[in-house]
Design brief:
heterodimer; A: 300 residues; mainly alpha; Formate dehydrogenase/DMSO reductase fold; B: 212 residues; alpha+beta; Alpha-Beta Plaits; four-stranded mixed beta sheet; two-stranded antiparallel ribbon; 7 helices; 13 strands; 20% helix; globular
Amino acid sequence: MAVHEVLAATNAVVTLDVGIPGIVWPWLVTVNMWAKSIGTGVIFMLFILLRMHPESAKNLRLPTAIVAFIFINIFLLFTLADLHQPFRMWHIFVYPSWSSAIAWGSFMASAFLGLLVLLAFLAYKKNNETFDKVLLWTTILAIPVTLYTAALMSQCTARELWQMPAEAAQMILAALLAGSATMILVGGNKLSDEAKKTLGVVLGLSALMAFIIYMSEYVFGPMKAEEIAVILEYIKGDGPYTVMFWLGQWIAYILPMILILLSRSSKSESILKLAAIMALVGLAIVKHVWLMIPQLLPMS
Amino acid sequence: MQLGFLVDLHLCMGCKGCEIACKVENEVPLSTWRLRVKYVDVGTFPETKRTFTPLRCNHCENAPCERICPVSALHYLDNGIVNIDKERCIGCAGCVMACPYGAIYIDPQTQTADKCTYCAHRVASSMMPACVVACPVQANIFGDLDDPTSNISKYIQNSQGGVQVRKPEKGTNPHHYYVGGGNVSLNPLASFRPEGHDLFGKMTSKMPVGGH
């Protein structure tokens, strides 16, 4: 219960004010994060598959490079679309401020895109040896590329809900979830049963860990700070994002975990693919809710 | 030199003269503000009281907006003012998201970030900010915090223990102080913000940001 609701004497009501800003980072930023999770996640998965199941993954080099290229371009396109002055994007490269995660992210994402082009070219030329060497560096770069958005969110001092350790873990888990789900769909029949099992384990465990972090925040967050308590009210009870929050948790995490267990016992590829599709759809919903709710809080 | 602001809320009577002066001086577009006065009614009828709180950029020593800006459009001037270069701004709205005081907005005309600059252009010409000049009761005190003989330094000295900043827990070290403030006037979560009609018209709590 907020202070103004405790006593009749402290009952406080805003009786005259200007309109305060609504949603500042809209759904375009949700798509940005979602596409980046796929673009970096498939690179992580290809790296793992080539080491654990090389025979099964050998034909996935070109398709994976193309999928990553497409989704990183979607990520960049929506980043650009979200700018109010998109034609000044070049200012970042000419006047970078290195205290900003946005500046670091722009440079790293551009380099990542360059490496993806190189990977696609090497895969097309079937130069597997060089491809695998470049893939190592691409995978290493994919880590900060996927993490920089967490750094950016943590730089938003106004948004108490977004704390760096939790957001960093969520970004990596989102990349593993989206990457494994996409690889299950892209790999299809090219993947051996063992490779599918590996992807299923990655998908299931990343869903479980992400779900645990969200539930920890949901239960314990309000005990730490007044702002978090108020923000989480938007996803509790009759809150405006309650339905969407739980829909996301079920579609992204809970149902895929159950489906993966079922697919392992029944050895059904269809159930595994259903889990992958649900995880990808649910991830967008989960990301969107977490992006929106801190923006509903009045700052002044 | 470190310029700062102090508002004596004992003196402020909510005339909004500062708000209008700021709008005129800086040509602030409709639906946006650099400085505004918020009214909060406290208590239950007939034991009620109205508080008036002018809100503007805090020109923080450790400004989150300056840190998050990828192109240094938000930058410090030598006199401590956090200024904005609208020609350089790319409109990423990172500063709007970072500012814990909700002091930055996207200008709907230029599609760039904007905020109070303590009237840096007037200060450069040795003039006081427009809001200071307009205040009929001298509730706005502006000056050099590094100068112990300045009005603002003396005011802080004389109000020992009664000087507050907004959200000190954020670690931003604001250069904007209040005397006579309380939880209701300085903490936005300490008051209920109803949708619908307020004193003079319809209060829409959520305004669109720029072109989205």
